[in-house]
Amino acid sequence: MSIIEKDKEYIASTYARFPVVLEKGNGSLVYDKNGKEYIDLSSGIAVNTFGVADKEWQNAVTEQLGKIQHASNLYYTEPCVNLAGILCQRTGMKKVFFSNSGAEANECAIKAARRYAEDKKGNEYNKIITLKNSFHGRTITTLAATGQEVFHNDFLPLTDGFLYCEANNCEQLENLVKNNKVCGIMFEFVQGEGGVLPLQKEFVNKIFCLAKEMDILTIADEVQTGNGRTGELYCFMNYGVKPDIVSTAKGLGNGLPLGATLLGEKVKDVFGFGSHGSTFGGNPIACAGAVSVINRIDQELLNGVKEKSDYIMNTLKNAKGVKSVTGMGLMIGIETEKNANDVINYCMENGVLVIKAKTKVRLLPALNIPFDLLKKAVEVIKKGCEI
Ligand SMILES: *Cc1c(COP(=O)(O)O)cnc(C)c1O
User: Fold this and answer.
1) Segment 14-51, tens digit of pLDDT
2) pTM for this model (two decimals)
3) DSSP state of 239
């Protein structure tokens, strides 16, 4: 049986995969089973921050692999403590809870918000406002948080207590906040799965104003926007605001499963002994790799992210067959005149891997993609968009 046939036989049919078996790579170049080379602008969905088989990350991981691969959270280990310290120092957040995925990081954020409200206002203040067209994960609770009915229908009943607000609708947000017993407002600064749509600054300011006025927690889902992706270490830095809770995952682990929920001053001590936990959370290997990732996201790298972003936007926004280009940093959505699938397939045939967000072509290159590879790839995309 071929790999593709075997996958169809034995793996749950949840993914419509591209007909490519990826075998290995080096930075932003990846190779399939037949030896065909691709420039990878998908990065495993914003996960491979420094591309594939990155040497520095590999060294950090393999060094830890030779010491201890897992200890459980019954004992102290150095890599997760170091990572938490670095994350707090770089963000101004106060404490970190580690998990293994974006959905889990969001579950922790939701629990923290409810726990905070229970202490301060009573447990009837359990409502969390999220945005329509958002994406927060696949567990029953994070699906409930996800403001898209298509994800809900087959799995009812979902967790109670979520209210949905149209993104960028300040009036609706104010009504929801004032007419319900709300403990948190949860949002992506740039809706990734929803079509790479940045929130308007005015709306973000409204979220933070209302939250301050009503003592409601702001919960930023930075699972995709975090870790340098949008040109700052975390996207909240682009907006000049400070969330009470920040969840992140994807690019933090550079490919190893790792989620983190960063807790600000108000919520740093909401969890007591035994109130939350994760067997794998804070795994020393994943954390050792993540320390090397975060330490490399410095001003020079971030400037490069912004430069590359400008290059992509400026090259594509007036290109033939392109209706619009949205996004921030190296998180970019292209609305094309052609069906996005046709553009994606053209790119794949011509050695460039890009993915989809809703009806758009989505680019999420590694943050350190060399300019010459990026230029080559953008030329292919440009051709693919032409009618
Ligand atoms: C990918 C993503 C998630 C879910 O992360 P998993 O690791 O798949 O659980 C949650 N929120 C956002 C914004 C994401 O992009």
Assistant:
1) 999 999 999 999 999 999 999 999 999 999 999 999 99
2) 0.98
3) H
Q: Residue 34 C-alpha to ligand 1 middle, in angstroms? A: 31
Residue 332, domain extent:
3-54+299-385
Residue 329's closest CA among 222, 202, 220? 222
Please give all residues whose beta carbon lies within 6 A of any atom in ligand 1, as ranges.
Answer: 101-103, 106, 135-137, 188, 192-193, 221, 223-224, 249-250
| Cis ω before 157 (30° cut-off from 0) | yes
Residues 233, 262: contact at Cβ < 8 Å? no
Out of 273, 296, 319, pick the residue that ends a domain. 296
First to last CA, the chain: 38
Same domain, 85 and 209: yes
| Residue 191 Cα: closest atom of ligand 1 | 13
Testing ligand 1's pocket by substitution, the residue of 235, 250, 356 carrying the most ligand atoms inside 8 A of its CB is: 250
Ramachandran category for residue 149: left, alpha or beta (phi over 0 → left; psi -120 to 50 → alpha)? alpha
Distance 223 CA to ligand 1 centre (A): 5
Q: Is residue 69 located within the same domain as residue 178?
A: yes
Domain with residue 362: its CATH number is 3.90.1150.10
CA distance 12 to 212: 45
> Across the strands, what pairs with 360?
357
Which parts of the chain are beta strand (E)? 22-26, 29-32, 37-40, 95-99, 127-131, 162-165, 182-187, 190-191, 197-198, 217-221, 245-248, 259-263, 322-328, 331-336, 352-353, 355-357, 360-363
pLDDT digits (tens, 9 = 90+) for 195-228: 999 999 999 999 999 999 999 999 999 999 999 9
Residue nearest to atom 5 of ligand 1 (CA): 102
Q: What is the DSSP letter of 154?
A: G
Alpha carbons 106 and 345: distance in angstroms, whole number: 33
In the reported structure, the alpha carbon of residue 304 is separated from the centroid of ligand 1 by a whole-number distance in angstroms of 25
